Amino acid sequence: MVRFILRRLLQAIPVLLGTTLLVYYMVFALPGDPIAALFGDRQPPQAVIDTLRSQYHLDEPFWVQYGLFLQNIFTFNLGNDFTGQPIAASLARVFPVTAMLAIEALAIQTVFGVGFGVFAGLRRGGWFDSTVLVASLVVIAVPTFVLGFAFQLVFGVQLGWAKPTVGANADWGNLLLPATVLGLVSFAYVLRLTRASVSESMNADYVRTATAKGLSRPRVVVAHILRNSLIPVVTFLGADLGGLMGGAIVTEAIFNVPGVGNKLYQATLRTEGPTIVSIVSVLVLVFVVANLLVDLLYAWLDPRIRYDQ
Amino acid sequence: MTIPDVRVDEAGYSGTSPLLEIRDLAITFKTSTGEVQAVRNAHLTIMPGETVAIVGESGSGKSTTALAAIGLLPTNGAVSGGQILLDGEDIAHATEKRMIELRGNTIGMVPQDPMSNLNPVWKIGYQVKETLRANGRPSGPDDIAKVLAQAGLPDAHRRAKQYPHEFSGGMRQRALIAIGLSCQPRLLIADEPTSALDVTVQRQILDHLDTMTTELGTAVLLITHDLGLAAERADKVVVMYRGQVVEAGPSLELLQNPQHPYTKRLVESAPSLASRRIQVAKEQGVEASDLLAPDAEAAAADHVLEIRDLRKVYKLRQGLGKSTDFAAVDGVSFDVARGTTTAIVGESGSGKSTVAKMVLQLEKPTDGKILFDGVDTSLLKASELFKFRRRVQPIFQDPYGSLDPMYNIFRTIEEPLRVHRIGDKASREKKVRQLLDHVALPQSSMQRFPNELSGGQRQRVAIARALALDPEVIICDEAVSALDVLVQAQVLNLLADLQANLGLTYLFITHDLAVVRQIADHVCVMEKGKLVETGSTDDVFESPQQEYTKALLNAIPGAKLMLPPEVA
After folding, report:
1. In this complex, which of A302, A308, A309 lies closest to B121 when CB atoms are compared?
2. How many domains, in total, are found in chain B?
3. Which residues of A touch B121 (CB under 8 A)?
4. Confidence category of residue B196, pLDDT binned at 50, 70, 90
5. Is this model's pTM higher than 0.80 or not?
6. What pLDDT is stored for residue B283 in this prediction?
7. What is the pLDDT of residues A237-256, one digit of tens each?
8. Which of B96, B116, B122 is facing A205, going by the closest CB pair?
9. pLDDT-based confidence at B130, cuts 50/70/90?
């Protein structure tokens, strides 16, 4: 098992090099001069521009810039962004916020998605199943920005249950509203996946055998239907966690959450190569770890899957 | 077992009261096309400690009747009439709570398919443990090991810590028997408990089940499609046909003097009893050509397939990049004469299916040659291989798995024609209709989907699909193993007819020696990748040379039952 985990983590290195190279190149190739953009309408003296350019190595060819960036990464010093702030410090500010948002959203979609999905799957065709299915379809069909504004208006402004925007003081309570919006879409998918999976395992021979052994209904459901139904759901959740950590640009913008999505958006507007690539590198790691967790969960859920052989 | 013994049992009926009595049972299923009555007027009686077998083909209602007795009918099915009396208590409409009390404790079950009836994600020991716990019995590690050991699992403490996928089919079935009997029920429902297993394993398991139920005094309701097996194992046999009990009585009596026409047909076509039938036919000079291929002698010189020193080695990974070689097929050579049937017999794991796959060019041999019409098939170019596939067609074991559920029957049969660009749309449709006639399926079934057909019908579709390209050789990999006896007999006769009419050559892969006896001209017996015995079917059956072959022959259920010639 340890070998497997180590191997997977080592595999992250080429992935990291490939993605950073690609993203760095794309930022490099973007039209427009980031230094000129810093000054807005004013025209700074050429000497200032040149100083700034050499300070940020923008006058170097692509390979040198990329090499310097890598050097920074491996010394854990990500350098400064164009406003002079250390990139590492701003990442340390935005990632915890997005991590909280992602975990909260993931928890909401897992608890409600799996819970509702199990009930719907056990009584397929019943009133609960039909209601939940239609509701989930509505959630899938409505775009996030509509859902986000609607929630903000109803729960944030009119009912006053939560703060309509998050702002600087992001905590679990403040993030509940954006997390709900973020979790709702995936909730619908989790629900449908669970439902399909449950109603399939319900007809499995081993479930009938379990009943024939004299087990009570709740035991049969928990031990023999639920655990066997979770594998496709876990796959989806793992992939989704990576996506959530990437920051939800739309949701974070609506609720003014100072998270990764916001930061990434601003950095893109300013063509700040180092910031963008730094964020992407962290995200790659998050994806690798999330997928590793999913694979480990697989092995726990289904003992037929073994990685050490 | 002798007839007087059975009579003594019967005489005992007046003394004690029956354990299970099913009276006028009717079971109805709600389907999309309306209500279907699956069982009508079923009745049977089981005395304490007695073994009663229900025999019938699939769809006869035998499993449904048994499932009703343990309250496990599918959700769309319900008892619509009659009584199921357990110790005088009518449990036909008992509450779920009452049924949970009875299940495990009073009524145990051993299900049909050991591969799918153990939950793959729990350890064997845990699955025993929860049974014990649910029925209020001690469930410590020693209790679990004891239960497993009683069912004949060696090294039970260690085995309990393993998962189902680490068990062979026979071991899984032992685990399921252990679970079924763990709480010492008074009635055990055994639903085709061994039909998925090799014959030799089948024999061991049934022997063990016999011993255990005799010791515990458990009554057994044995569900089987195999009349030979039923007669050998049960005191009484109940024959069901299309949802009704058509005949019931002491086993041997029923076998020797069947009254109902269906029972007569069943006795005639039971493969386990048929070995004797062929002999009788030969003695009486009756032509056996509907069972044996014609002109086997004349065609002997013309070998359509020649297998030379065939080897297939798989690498088994052993961690840390090491691997060991495993020879699934080890130096096998034999010939197949045109227009004859050659059977490869062996237990699972003997390599017989691997040989079939290599002949079909679905696996590459590690070593050795396969000559088809004198041409080495390993040298075929892609285009030649495409033509080769036209001439050699497979029929696989599982008629449920080998047909695409999304294709209707027409599309399934037409697909090979389309792939090989034969004919236009109209002529292909005509051909499909012909093929359906060939395999005795109504042309109206063209628009239906596999899930709407029975197992036998599906296998006919698979045969029609294989015949679509007018092949010369058909490789049947356990092609009739999944079918009921009567259907099996029909399919075997169909294959024999087609052989006589079209001059087909069959390579028949099977573990079922009874089937071999009925259809094959030559037999190759395989054990652990090697060919241990080969010869004409008569020679192998009448004077087997190898111990392994003898063991296989002995394990045919019902082989020891002596039937008077007029019945057999």
Report:
1. A302
2. 2
3. 227-228, 301-303
4. low
5. no
6. 37
7. 888 887 787 767 888 888 88
8. B116
9. very high
State yes or no: ipTM above 0.90: no
Residues B247 and B385 in one domain: no
Q: How far apart are CA B14 and CA A4, in angstroms?
A: 68
Residue of B nearest to A214 (CA): B103
Q: Which residues of chain B lie closer than 8 angstroms to A307, CB-CB?
A: none
Residue percentage of chain B with pLDDT more than 70: 88
Q: Is B287 contained in some domain?
A: yes
Averaged pLDDT score across all residues of chain B: 81
Any idea what the Cα angle at residue A177 is, between residues A283 and A186, rounded to 5°?
Answer: 55
Question: Does B173 reach chain A within 8 Å, measured CB to CB?
Answer: no
What is the per-residue pLDDT across A182-196, written as a single tens digit (0 to 9) for each? 888 888 889 999 999
pLDDT beyond 50 at B284: no
Contact B134 A216 (CB under 8 A): yes
Structure tokens at A54: 């050499």
How many cross-chain Cβ pairs, A to B, lie less than 8 Å apart? 85
Eight-state DSSP code of residue B308: E
Same domain, B287 and B328: yes
Segment B156-181 mean pLDDT? 87
* Rounded Cα gap, residues A110 and A56, in angstroms: 44
Name the DSSP class of A80: B
Give the distance from residue A285's alpha carbon to the nearest chain B alpha carbon, in angstroms.
27
Average pLDDT, chain A: 82
Based on the domain organization, do B239 and B300 belong to the same domain?
A: no
Burial degree of A251 (CB within 10 A; 0-12, 13-18, 19+): buried
Residue A228 near chain B (CB below 8 Å): yes
In a domain, B205, yes or no: yes
Over range B378-385, report the average pLDDT.
86
CA distance B135 to chain A (A): 7
A299 contact residues in B (CB cutoff 8 A): none
Contact B119 A224 (CB under 8 A): yes
Report residue B564's pLDDT band, with 50, 70 and 90 as the boundaries. Answer: very low
State the smallest CA–CA distance between residue A231 and chain B in angstroms.
11
Choosing from B269, B292, B327, the residue where a domain stops is B269
Cα separations in angstroms, B144 against A207, B110, B141, B175? 21, 17, 5, 11
**Region of poorest pLDDT, from A197-206, B267-276, B466-475:** B267-276
* Together in a domain, B198 and B312: no
Cα separation, B474 vs B391, in Å, equals 8
pLDDT of amino acid B282: 37
B204: contact with A, CB 8 A cutoff: no
The answer on pLDDT for B274 being more than 50 is: no
What range defines the domain where residue B310 resides?
283-554
Measured in angstroms, the CA of B116 and the nearest CA of chain A are apart by 6
Are A240 and A286 within 8 A, CB to CB? no
Q: Which of A205, A208, A215 sits opposite B130 (nearest CB)?
A: A215
In a domain, B289, yes or no: yes
Mutate to test the interface with B, among A123, A213, A298 (most CBs of B within 10 A): A213
pLDDT, one tens digit per residue, over B22-61 is 999 999 988 777 788 889 888 899 998 899 999 887 778 8
- What is residue B11's predicted lDDT score, i.e. its pLDDT? 38
Nearest C-alpha of chain B: how many angstroms from A19? 30
Contacts of B108 in chain A (CB under 8 A): 212
What residues contact B435, with CB distance under 8 A and at least 6 apart?
Answer: B413, B464, B467, B468
From B238, B269, B300, give the residue that closes a domain.
B269
SS3 at position A214: coil
Within 8 A of A212 by CB-CB distance, chain B residues are 70, 72, 103-104, 108-109, 111, 180
Strands of B187-191's sheet, edge to edge? B107-110, B187-191, B219-224, B51-55, B236-241, B244-250
Helix axes A2-29, A273-301, angle to 10 degrees: 150
